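Task: fold both queries, return tokens.
Query 1:
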Amino acid sequence: MAKKKRIAAKRNVPAKKKATATKKNVAVKKKKTTKKLPASARRATQRLVIHTNDITKILGINIRTAQRLLQTIREELGRKKKDYVSIREFAQYVHLEEEEVKQNLSAEVLA
């Protein structure tokens, strides 16, 4: 019973308020605005490597299958486990044209 009283007493204690400075004392920092370039002036960057999520969307396969596919491509190329696979190398391995793969990737980004 005593424990319940202690818990109830703790709940009824009002929280201490932090002292806040008045608006006069607070220095207002102005945000630096950066000018954004129009979409036509921005330089479009092309990706050089392909990831498992891209492969799943292009080929319509499970993510684990895409991981295995990337691993087999790396093994055939003599790459290490964490090395990247380029879009060109992927396209050659799955017998697709490089341009088709790039177009599909750019369509995914826009969608």
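Query 1 returned. Query 2:
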Amino acid sequence: MEPGNGCEGRWRVRRGAGDRRAGLRITKTVSTGSWIARRFQRRGYGKEMRGAILHLAFAGLGAERAESAAWSTNAPSLGVSWSLGYQSNGTTIRAFEGVRQEQINLVLDRERWESRRDDIAIHGLSDEMLELMDVKPAASR
């Protein structure tokens, strides 16, 4: 997704829960999530955005596992996740906007990801940056 192209969206990667500084180093797990404005949906931006952040997590940060979740009623979000290789990993019942909602939990491991994408490059992720995040450089970088 090119900056300044008018596409409103956001993404995040969270290191492992608990000790924020050492979480990824210990668990080798990231939590991903994304949101994109409705008028930009169904154009491939969300899939590319999620693909880029997964590549950063696995190839750049050395993650072994990525976790995500979506409401059971959000078929487009689940479709993007499944198309990227995520698999269902159980459900959780949550309260959302005053209503009981089922959340589908998803997981993607490094091996399953590596068999899907080889067209993404990471630029500017220095060893100094990884040191600040308390992460060892990934072998595949």
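Both queries returned. Flag for query 2: The chain is about 30% helix and 30% strand.
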